[in-house]
Amino acid sequence: MTDEDHAVFDAVLDLVTSRGIPETTLRRVADRSGVDGKTLRRQYGSQFGLFMTAAKTLEYDRDRRLAAVGSEPRSDSVADRRAYLEAVTRALLPDPTDRRLLLRTEIVASARLVHGMDVETTRMGRSDRAIAAAALTRAGVADVELETERLLALISGLSFELAYPHGAGEGSADRVVRHHIASLVH
After folding, report:
1. Is 11:41 a contact under the CB 8 Å cutoff?
2. Taking Cα atoms as reference points, which of 146, 141, 111 lies closest to residue 125?
């Protein structure tokens, strides 16, 4: 990413987290990023293009976190298979202290408000499903299809809880992830 790309992404991040998807317009991104509005229109085309680029940046971040996990558990032991599955789950669940979690949550939640974003969020979901299914298979989980859906529902719920806390105690997301994975890998 160029410095200009970073400035645009940061502006989108700032605006979405402070004002929401509908208020994140090309004009506001131009004002916040310092990038000329004509340049933004040429590079991104529309508000939709900005969100597509933001979604792809989030996906790149996820892929970077997944690469750090590796592609297999270290051994066939229960502890290593659990550790591997927990690491993949955490790679799919952005860091709760990172505002990017809120950006991804807003993009998914508001997909129907921006024409065409539903296609992108469906693609993002399919990608996450494939990653979760592969990790569950490698961890030796019996009913991969069912457990993929359960794991993604857990990640989705935790994403919203972390982005918009509504009563869960500190560290509860970690406990939920560990407990769920322990129930899967034994």
Report:
1. no
2. 111
- Rounded CA-CA distance 117/137 in Å is 30
Which residue is listed with tokens 């994975």?
A: 181
Q: Specify whether the CB–CB gap between 21 and 113 falls below 8 A.
A: yes
Q: What pLDDT digit, counting tens, does each position of 87-113 carry?
A: 999 999 877 788 888 888 888 888 777
Q: By CB neighbour count within 10 A (0-12 exposed, 13-18 middle, 19+ buried), where does 124 fall? A: buried
Nearest to 116 by CA among 43, 58, 41, 53: 53
How far apart are the C-alpha atoms of 80 and 130, rounded to whole Å?
A: 21
pLDDT tens track for 134-148: 999 999 999 999 999
Compute the distance between CA of residue 122 and CA of residue 129 in angstroms, rounded to an integer: 10
| The token pair that represents 26 in the structure block | 């090309």
Residues with Cβ within 8 Å of 155's Cβ and at least 6 positions away in sequence, in order, are 89, 92, 93, 128, 132
Count Cβ atoms within 10 A of the Cβ of residue 115 and give its class: 0-12 exposed, 13-18 middle, 19 or more buried: exposed
Contact 27, 37 (CB under 8 A): yes
CB atoms within 10 A of CB 180: 19
